[in-house]
Structure formats: structure tokens, C-alpha cells
# Entry
Amino acid sequence: MDRTKGIYNLFIRLVKNINGLLMLPGLSLYTGEGKLLVSKDGKTQYEEYYPVAPVEFVLKTETELTEKDKARIEKNIGILKQKQIPYYDGMKNIPTEKKVQLVNKELCYKKMLFDYTAATIATTILNRNGNHEGVYDMVMENMQKKHQISERLPANLNDYFLQFKNGNYNKESLSRMSWSYEESAVTTWALGLIDKPSYSEQCDVDELNKVLYYIDDCDNFIDRCNMRSFDEILEYADMLYRLKWACEESRIKKQELNGLNERVITFQKESIMWLLGIN
# Structure
């Protein structure tokens, strides 16, 4: 009996060290704390449970880092330490020089136009309590006048906006699309038109409107865009990956994390991934 208990405790220590789970012959599943997660008949010692992936085992592939990668990582971790934001210095699933490829200015401009236009239409409809009458025509007419959007964007993306004209949407999809302002803020920043968006609060829509919607002189707009450097965009991307991890870690551990807005960071990260060709 003592020998069996010793073997059991040995396995419990092992699964705890790797954030794993232990299944016994009776098909009961135990955590590294020695507590029953679930039995064959559905019993458990937990009221709630948050699984934690054993990162070192899941991500076995080593990430090849250049000297610039190492310097970037060190700089961003230093900022996180200073702000007392959780960090994991062994992150492997991060954007690095050899893993990504920055899109060109023209594609960045198109992405910015699509996200901004979709967010503008969706937000206007929401602000009108769901009344979509005339919204599509008003926004598209202005975006055509200022940016020649129908020629800039491929047909499938222009057709996407028709759902707002035809009323083929629901409130949830409108709400989701209104968050595209956060994605357009990233591409607008990447084109050198605004300062870097905040991690803690939603972007300044009035600023985006001034830059993209209410401009008087819009001739050769793209020529006024100065794409930020690959290094600057990659540094921003690395920080977003780390901030997203910090948000998830704090949520799992039910710890308060001041100064960060996880939803804002999520949409910023989606946009920066697109810029760097990360699926």
C-alpha cells in the first residue's frame, strides 16, 4: 500500500511540474494538486477549473532569434517590469525577423480603408438605434470622394458593405464590426498618420475621422503616408503579444490588471498580425 501511494505521489509531482493531468486506471482524472478533476461518473472536487497548457511541451520548436530580436525582447520585457505587468520571458510564439514579412504601403492603406469604413457604417447604425436607412450611401459616397474606395478595394470587400445597406445583419455583428476602429487605428499608425494607439482605452475615433473622413485635400492621399519601419512595427507587435499573454494570465488567475484593455489589445493584435503576414 505504501509503495502504491508512493508511486501515486510521484506521478502527481510529475504532472504538477509539467502542468499536466494524471489519469488512473479507473478513468478518473487528477490535477497536479492531487484533486479529482473528473471521474467516470462525472464527480469532481472542483467548482471551477482553468487548464494551463504545458508550454515547454506544446511548443518544442526553438525560435531562432537574431540580435535585433533579442534586443527588442529585452526592451519590451524591461518596460513590462517597470510597469509591473506580468510577463513570460520564454515566449516562443512571437513574431521575429525571420518569421514575418511586412505588407507594402498599398495593402496597408486598403486594410485601413476597409476596417475604418466598416466600423463607421456599423457605429452610425448603432448610434441611430439600428436604423440603417441612408447610412451606407452617406458613408460610401464620402469614402469614394475622398479615397476612391470602390477602385481601391477588390469587389468582394466592396460587396461586404452591402449587408449594411440591405439590413442583412444583427446587433451583435454591428457591435463586433464597430471594434474595427481599433484595427484601423493600427494601420493608420503604421502609415505614419497618427501616434501609436493606447493599450488601455479605445482609440480616438475623432482623430481617425479628421485624418480619413473630414479631410479637405485628399488628392494623392497615399503619397502622404510614410510607412513606419519594419523594426518599429515588429517592436509594437512583440509588445502586443506579451500584453495579450498578460491579460490572459491575469484572467485565468483572477488577478486584477490595471492599465490594460484586453479587448482593445486583441483587435490591435489581429491588425498587427495581418500587417506581418501572420495567419
Observations:
- The chain is about 55% helix and 5% strand.
- The beta strands are 22-23, 29-30, 36-38.
- The mean pLDDT is 88.
- Residues 69 and 212 are 34 Å apart (CA to CA).
